[in-house]
Amino acid sequence: MKQKNKEQNHNKKYIAIEILVGILVSLGIFLFLYLRGYQPAGEDVYGHLYKVEFLGENIKKGVLFPLYTEDWYNGFQMFRYWPIFAYYVMAIGYLLTGSLLLSYYLLFVTIFAVGYIGFCLIANREQRFFFIVIGICYFFLPDNVRLMFGEGNLARAFMSGMLPLFFYFYTNLIEKKKSLIPTVIMVFLFVATHIMLTAMCAIIFSLYSIFAGAKKGTWYLGPLAFVLGILTSGIVLLPALLGDVVTGSSSSTANRMSDWSQNLLLSLSVTTRQQGETSCTFGLAMFAIAIVIIIFGKRKAGAIIGLIFFVLSADAFLPLVSHMPLPQAWWMLRYVQMCYVLICYEWGFLEFKKKGLIWLTLVAVLLDTAPSYFYFTQIEEPVSGENLLDEAADLTSNRMGLVDESTLKSYVSYFVLEKNVDYVQGWDIQGATTNVRIVHMTEAARYGYYDYTFQELLELGCDSALLKKSILPKGFSTEDIVAAAKRYGYTFVDENADVILFDLEGVDGQFGVNISADNLAIGSSALYVSYMYPSFVAGASEDLDDYSLDDLKQYKKIYLSGFTYSDQQKFEELLTSLADAGTEVYIDARSIPKNRYGIGNLFGIEVQDITLTKVSEWRYGDDTYTFDLPYKWVSQYLTSSNDDVTMENFVTDGLELGYFATYDKNIHVVGMSLPYMLAEDPQADLRTLVEKMFAMKEADTNVSYEIVPLTITYDANGMTIKTDQDVCTNVAYQDNFVSDRKFGVKNELITVKAGTTRIHYVYAYFKEGMIVTLIGIFATIFLWILLFKKKWDPLVPLRKLTDKLLEMN
Fold it and tell me: How far apart are CA 710 and CA 100, in angstroms?
C-alpha cells in the first residue's frame, strides 16, 4: 500500500513538472514573438488570417458557420472547401484578445501545447521521461518551423500540432486495444481541419498499424479507426467531395505535384535555411536518428515507414507517385510532419548501453534546428503602397481586379477585408467557381492578348484593375495595353516600376455587364482563338452534346478545337444544319477522331499526322505567304478526293499538301494547327493568313457590351439583387444558392430578370452529409461494443476458415 502511494505521489510530481515545463515553454514562445514584434510571414499566411478575422467578425454577429463570402472570387463558399475547425481555434484567440496579431501568436502557443500534451501522455504511459523532451523538440523541428513561419499555412501547422495527440490515442488502440472512440474523434477533427492531410494520415498511419500491430493481431484497428472517423465526418467531407477542390482535374493536380517533390540533399542541408530557402527542410539530424533507430533500435516500424515516405518525396519518384490513385494524396512533402511523429515515437524508445548517447541525439537535433532562426527574422509589415493597392481600393465601388499570377502572394486577399473591398481573386483559387476564367485572364496578359484580359475584367465586374508588369511579355508596350483597356472603357490612372493601374471610366457603384458576341469557341484548345479574337467567346462546355442547334445557330462563326462528342453521324448532321442556317463552322483537324490506321475523316476530308521543320510557302487563293515554323512542328495535313471539297495547300520539300479544307461553303477543317501557331509566334504573314481563313474583320476583335447598374445587398442568410433590366451579374454561381425566383447562369455568373431577386444560402448536401455522419456514429458505437465490451475478435473466424481450407487441401 505504501509502495502504491509512493508511486502515485511520484506520478503527481511528474505531472506537475510536465505542466510547469509546458507553461514555461509556451510563455517563452509567446514572449519571443511579442517582444520581437514578429509580423505574419509566409506565402499563405494572410489568406489564413483573412479566414480567422472573417470568422471572428461573423461570430460577433451570431453567425457560427458562415456559408458564403462575397469578398473573394466574385463570391464563394469559404468553409465548404477549407474546413473550419482550425479557424475556430484561431478565432477564439481573436475574440479574446481583440487583436489578430496576438491571436496569431497564441496559435503557435496552442500548436506547441497540443503537441506537447500528446508526447506527455505517451511519456506517462510508457514511463519514459525522454518523451517530454521530444515533446518540446517536436515544435522546433526544422520543417515544423518552416511550415509555421516560412510557408505560413496555418491550417497545416495546426494539424501538425494535433498529430502527437492523435498518435497517443492511435498507439493506445494498436498496442493496448483501447481508445477507439478518442481516435475516431481525432480523425473527425483532422477532416474538420484539412481534408487531404487526413487522407495522407490514413495512408501512412494505416501502414504503420499493419506493421506495428501484426504480432498482436491488432493491425486492422488503425485502418478501421480511420474509416469510422471519415464516415463520422460526412457532414464536413461529403459537401467538399461533391465540389471541385478535393476531386479537381487530374491534369491540374499532376501539374501541382511537381511543386510537392524535392531534392533530398537540399532538404537535409543546413545551409539552405541560412540562405533564405523556404522549401522543405527535413533536417539532417532527424534523418540520422531514423537511421540509428533502424540499426540499433528494438522498435523500427515508425522509422522505416517515415524514411520511406521521405525518400519517396524525391524528384526521381515523381513519375511513380503521380500515377497513384487520388493524386492529391501523394503530394509527398506534406507527409514530413507525419514522418516526424513516427520517427519521434521510436526515438523515445531508443536505448544505448551508455545512456549519455541518447542525449547526443538531442544535441544533434538542437544544432540542426538552430539555422531555422532565419524564419523569425520577419518583422516588417507588408507594404501596399508600392503596388498601388491603396489607390486601387479607393477607386473601387464594385470589385477590384489584380492580374499578377499571385506574385503579390496572399497579402492582397487580407488587404481587401481591411479595406472592405470585394475582390475578383482571393487565395487558393481551387475553391472558386471562376477559377478557370481567372487563370485564362492572367495567361492572356502574359501572352500579350490584352483585349481578352480587359474583357474578362469587365465581365467579372472590376471597376479598378492592376496589372503586374513582371508577368507581361518581355518588351511590352504600355501604349498597347492602354489602347486595349480603352476599348473596354478603362482609363489609365497611374503606374510605377511594378504595376499599372486602370479605372473603369464613368462607373460608380455596383453593376452587371451584358456581353454580346457574334462568334463562339468550343473546346479545351479553342481558347487561343478567344485570346486573339475575343469575339469568339468561350463555350460553357467542351462537350458538343451539351449544346442544341438553337444554342449554336445564333452565332456567325464557331471554332471547335479540343471538343468531344458521342456520335459521328449526329455530329455531321449538326454541322450540316448549322451550315444551312448560315453559321460558319471551323473544326481543328486535331480533334477529328482517327481510325486504327491513324487517319481521321470528316465529310471526305482525311486527316493525317506530319512532322515538319520547314515550309516553303503557304498558298491561299492567288496569294502566297512565307513564315518560319516556331520549332519542330507536329500537326496534321489534309487530303480529299471529294469534289465538294476545296483545299488550300502548303509546299514542303517539293510536296504540295492541304492545310485548310472547305466543304459545302460553311464547313471548314483547319489543319497544321495554324491558330495555335499564331498564338505561339505571332508573325505578320501568319496572322494575315489565319485572318483570311477565318474571314476576320475588325469587328471580330472585340465584343459589344452594356454596363447595367444594379444593387446587391448581402446578409448572413443570402443576397438581394435589384435591377431595372435583365442583366448578367458578376456574382459567381454557387450550388448552395436557392431562390423562389428563377435565375440563370452564364459563363459561371448568375443572370437575373428585371426586378428584385432574393437568393438564399443553404448548407450544400446537408441531409446527405448528416446521413453519412449518423452511419459513422452508429457504426463506431456498435463496433466499440462488439470489439471492446464483447471482446469479439474478427480474426478468429478468419483463422478458422483458413484452418478448414488447409485441412481440405
Answer: 35
Question: In this predicted model, what pLDDT tens digit does every residue of 450-489 receive, in sequence order?
Answer: 999 999 999 999 999 999 999 999 889 999 999 999 999 9
Q: Give the burial string for 16-32 (b: 16+ CB within 10 Å, else e).
A: eebeebbeebbeebbee
Place of cell 478468419: 798
pTM of the model as a whole: 0.88
- Asked if the model's pLDDT at residue 257 lies above 60, the reply is no
Q: Are 758 and 741 in contact (CB under 8 A)?
A: yes
Any idea which residue has 508588369 for its cell?
469
Of 243, 135, 307, 252, residue with least CA distance to 144: 135
Lowest mean pLDDT of 61-65, 450-454, 514-518, name the range: 514-518
User: For residues 517 and 705, is the Cβ–Cβ distance under 8 A?
Assistant: no
Report the chain's C-alpha Rg in angstroms. Answer: 31
What is the number of other CB atoms lying within 10 angstroms of the CB of residue 435? 22
Burial class (CB in 10 A: 0-12, 13-18, 19+), 406: middle
| Contact in structure between 85 and 192 (CB atoms under 8 Å) | yes
| CA–CA dist 569, 550 (Å, integer) | 19
Grid coordinates given for 531: 485570346
Sheet with strand 744-746: strands edge to edge = 727-732, 749-752, 744-746
- Cβ contacts of 773 within 8 Å, gap of 6 or more: 231, 232, 233, 234, 235
Is residue 446 packed enough to be buried (19+ CB in 10 Å), middle (13-18) or exposed (0-12)?
A: middle
CA distance 423 to 774: 38
Report the distance separating Cα 740 and Cα 259, nearest Å: 45
3-state secondary structure of 277: coil
Axis crossing angle, helix 154-171 with helix 180-191, rounded to the nearest 10: 170
Of 597, 503, 520, 511, the C-alpha closest to 558 is 520
Cβ contacts of 205 within 8 Å, gap of 6 or more: 167, 170, 222, 226, 338
Strands 584-588 and 667-670: parallel
In the three-class reduction of DSSP (H, G, I as helix; E, B as strand; rest coil), residue 729 is classed as strand
Contact 455, 376 (CB under 8 A): no
